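WARN retry 2 of 3 for item q-0093 after timeout on previous attempt; input resubmitted unchanged.
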Amino acid sequence: MTALGFTPNYSFYAIPAFYILVVTPAVYGRVRLTIANNGNYDNANPRGEKFAASIKKTVPKNILALFERTEAAHQNALESLPLFASAVICANIAKVDTETLNTVCAAFLLLRAAYIPLYIGITSRRYALARTGVWAGSIWCCLSLLVKAGRIMANGGHSVA
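OK item q-0093 returned
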């Protein structure tokens, strides 16, 4: 809050910030794969069967497994992007208070920033529950904004205590 009692709304900036987080694991995985594959990466058809077959032969198994986890982390983040963006937009349309918007968006970004290395680094089922807990927390952030927005809109656009 500023000296004039006004809190700037940073929530819309959280959407492109999350997009950067979305692409980070994919870039990291492709860089590691390319290095392990002597600089070879089929950018013309990276999802093609021919390239997949060649990397299975030339890339060490641990790097291939890391690449698969980075791709999965990227896909998971892509699946969360529409939910997060729509939650931010709906909360802004409903005029959810700015402090709540900023706090929930920051919490979401922090949870997702923690989630990516957990997804990539955890290889044991024993510790995978920690990753799931962080994911659930990030989804809760989105759902809480949608519920707050829904309650305000159901109340004729007036804030609900």
